[in-house]
Amino acid sequence: MSSPLTTSLDNLHPGEKAAISSIHAEESLFQRLTALGFRAGKQIEMVRRASFNGPLHVRIGTTEIILRRSEAHRIQINTGL
Amino acid sequence: MKRVALLGMPNTGKSTLFNRISGASARVGNWPGITVDLMSAKILMGGHIAELIDLPGIYDLHGFSDDEQVVRHFLEHNAIDLVIIVLNSTQIDRQLSLALQIRALGLPSVLMLNMADEARRGSISIDIQAMSERIHMPVAMISAKYGEGFQAALTLAAQSIASSNMQLTLEQINSRLQADNVLEQEMESIVRDSVQMPAQLTDQTTERIDKVLLHPWLGLPIFFAAMYLLFQFIFTAGKPLQDGVAWLLQMLRGGVLEPMLAHVPTWLHGLLLDGIYNGVGTVASFVPIIILFFLIMSMVEDSGYLSRAAFLMDALMARLGLDGRGFVMMLMGFGCNVPALMGTRVMRSRNLRLLTMLVIPFSLCSARLQVFVFMTAILFTPQQAPLVLFTLYLMSFAAIFVSALIFKGRYANSEPFILELPPYRFPTPRQIVLRGWQEVGYFLRRATKFIVIGVVLVWVLTNFPSGAAPASNETFAGMIGSFMAPILTPIGIDTQLAIALIFGFVAKEIVIGSLAVIYGLQGDALMHLMAHKLDWVQGMSFMLFTLIYTPCLSTVATLRTESKSSAFMMLSIVWSLVLAWVVSFVFYQSARALGF
Known about the structure:
Number of helices of chain B: 26
Low-confidence stretches of chain A: none
Largest sheet of chain A: 6 strands, antiparallel
CATH topology of chain A: SH3 type barrels
Number of strands of chain B: 10
Structural class of chain B: alpha/beta
Number of domains of chain B: 3
CATH architecture of the largest domain in chain B: 3-Layer(aba) Sandwich
Strand order of the largest sheet of chain B: 2-3-4-1-5-6-8
Distance between the termini of chain B: 72 Å
Strand order of the largest sheet of chain A: 1-6-2-3-4-5
Oligomer: heterodimer
Strand content of chain A: 35-45%
Largest sheet of chain B: 7 strands, mixed
Structural class of chain A: alpha+beta
Shape of chain B: elongated
Mean pLDDT of chain B: 89
Radius of gyration of chain B: 27 Å
Number of domains of chain A: 1
Helix content of chain B: 55-70%
Strand content of chain B: 5-15%
CATH superfamily of the largest domain in chain B: P-loop containing nucleotide triphosphate hydrolases
Mean pLDDT of chain A: 89
CATH class of chain A: Mainly Beta
């Protein structure tokens, strides 16, 4: 079910929180994301976005992670918490 | 002998634990089935003599990343008596999956939950008894950094060493690893029953430091200022140390070796002193700079700032096929290429690392700077000289960018750029010193033979056939210079300069000294003669060539040992020679065409 509140992680603004709804990635990327705590249902927070279209800094639970926008685009989130 | 493997996720302090167990006795070694070096040490473990191996940090055993492949091949080719799994206590809620995978493989194992100190600070409590019962392996909480719980954990590990070792096939690894979601559910259930942790753990200090260091506008200026300071420190502290080593070597030569060898035949005297002893001296001169570099690097790396630098610089570096950490190593290369190449080990994707190693040698290091300062003083006015030096620095960056763009397709990096940002930590002095010690040992063991052979070879080229005056046109080097004339004349380099370039292959520090030997003059007289013989276009062409072609034998030796590939080393040498020639050719011919 896709509601208007569903978007991809790269659209989240600093300080905002959302829940991960799904991850659309090939197996290698999917495994890496899973190992770092990206799982459906988990809450994720955007900490900051680097200048010049650089990577994103996010927080899941106790882990802080940086990832490129292209990879963040593959992660669907639900902002209607 | 028993074989014990240390295995864990990245950033869990696995190597810190390895160093705590092994002390300074660790060695780098080759292992069957894998292409990277692993640290290992012989230790005493509960009455057994055991070989402890530090495996690369991995997230899981599926084998998508280069490091996961290394671990899988290691397990396939080496029988194991015990796996010590190291996980970060503060992230146990997601890291436990790795322990469950190891258990699924059926390997004898013990789980060490590291960073007990940080867990306590974050009000995380773990019931290790309950956890141990659920995952069917002994569990201990430790702080590898401060040694807390360390002895008890070792005793536990010694008791867990299996009576018979175990070797797996790849098929076994694959078949036992299926059903990830089952594993995940089990992990959640175990964590629910044995771990109590706050919903979100935020390190206030780290958050505050990051607000400044990763600031949208201040972040980059602070990064460059920090790099400049580190670079200056290595340079200013390293120079007197290198001079001191050179002075000691000179004393030993003049005071002991020369008198001792006064009566041996001239060729043997030359071989021993100008060949072998100079080779050893070349190796020794790198020792202080490598120690200093890794004292600094271990602080930058262990503190967590390196990942932050990657965050700041990634927007630019991604376009070059590199990442932000590569940029830090490139900058460090402006001090000295050798430790910068060794520092690329933090990059875990082999292709990314090779691409970075291919561009680092174009960083204008301090040895090349000496040549340029000398040449610009001869050929340019004091007003022009700084501008010329600045141009050479720009050319250095240009060579890096062009090479990265050309080769990024060949060394395409398939691993996703997803990095953990660990909280800021400060390494203990013990950790810092141990790192410097290990890296120097590694360089000495791996590079010495190669460098000494190279220096002896250049000595032969510049002193033979017998009867020829050293470094004259009649030596082999002179013959090569004359033979290469059709290639070198179009870039304004004559036979004398060609001989200097052959010397420069050993080290740029000796280029000026070699010019003195080649022209048979020293100091002011040498400068006058060169100013008379060369015009600025020739001089500039020579400097451009010197900037871009192979920096030195030590760099070549390091390229070979770090890449474990002679083909890669040859590619680096050939590509830099081709690029150097093309740049010098374009410059020299255009300048001449414009009437200079």
